[in-house]
């Protein structure tokens, strides 16, 4: 869509399944959205792992932009709408490399407004199941009449299981 834009500024809260060695200063979830090339979220070993995000307003997602550390990427990955968490809404197909990847949602799902989502990594390219993400953003637009121009940082929430 022509009015699609990056939506990280519309994230109000987010959480992750785990943090490597519980070292939240070096590897915590705050690094997902800090726009630094030097920092990352690093999960603990084991699967599944996840990132859960809540938006300030309903958004219509067209894609997810994510950058993994090669060798520590999500392998079998699903996207969930947390208003209906029992079934994934679609699989995502990330590559095992260091590039910023754009994971496009199926066209039939791009016109549905969502407030809370979860990206679940059922398996990893790492033998121990660790996931490392350097950056995360969302492509799409706020539901009509719901735009929010606040550029403040998202709120951190405790790790969820």
Average predicted confidence as pLDDT: 91
Q: Any idea what the radius of gyration is?
A: 15 Å
In which range does the helix fraction lie? Answer: under 10%
Q: Which spans of ≥5 residues are poorly predicted at pLDDT below 50?
A: none
What characterizes the major β-sheet? 10 strands, mixed
Structural class: mainly beta
Number of strand segments: 10
Supply the number of helical segments: 1
Query: What percentage of amino acids are in beta strands?
Result: 35-45%
- The 3D shape can be described as globular
How many angstroms separate the termini? 34 Å
Write the element-wise H/E pattern from the N-terminal end onward: EEHEEEEEEEE
Organism: Coemansia aciculifera
Protein name: Galactose-binding like protein
InterPro entries: Galactose-bd-like_sf
Descriptive tags:
single chain; 161 residues; mainly beta; ten-stranded mixed beta sheet; 10 strands; 2% helix; 40% strand; Galactose-bd-like_sf; Galactose-binding like protein
Characterise this structure.
With 161 residues, the protein is mainly beta. Helix content is 2%, strand content 40%. The chain has one helix spanning 24-27; strands at residues 5-6, 11-16, 41-42, 49-68, 77-81, 90-92, 100-104, 113-121, 132-142, 155-156. Strands 1, 2, 3, 4, 5, 6, 7, 8, 9 and 10 form a 10-stranded mixed β-sheet that branches. The model has no long low-confidence stretch (mean pLDDT 91).
């Amino acid at each position: 869509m022509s009015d699609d834009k990056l939506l990280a500024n519309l994230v109000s809260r987010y959480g992750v399944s785990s943090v490597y060695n519980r070292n939240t200063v070096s590897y915590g979830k705050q690094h997902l959205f800090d726009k630094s090339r030097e920092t990352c979220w690093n999960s603990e070993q084991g699967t599944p792992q996840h990132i859960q995000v809540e938006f300030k307003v309903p958004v219509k997602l067209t894609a997810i932009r994510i950058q993994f550390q090669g060798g520590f990427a999500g392998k079998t990955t699903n996207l969930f709408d947390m208003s209906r968490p029992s079934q994934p809404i679609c699989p995502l197909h990330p590559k095992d490399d260091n590039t910023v990847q754009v994971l496009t949602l199926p066209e039939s799902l791009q016109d549905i407004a969502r407030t809370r989502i979860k990206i679940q990594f059922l398996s990893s390219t790492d033998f121990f199941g660790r996931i490392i993400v350097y950056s995360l953003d969302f492509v799409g637009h706020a539901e009509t009449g719901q735009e929010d121009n606040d550029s403040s940082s998202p709120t951190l929430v405790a790790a969820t299981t």
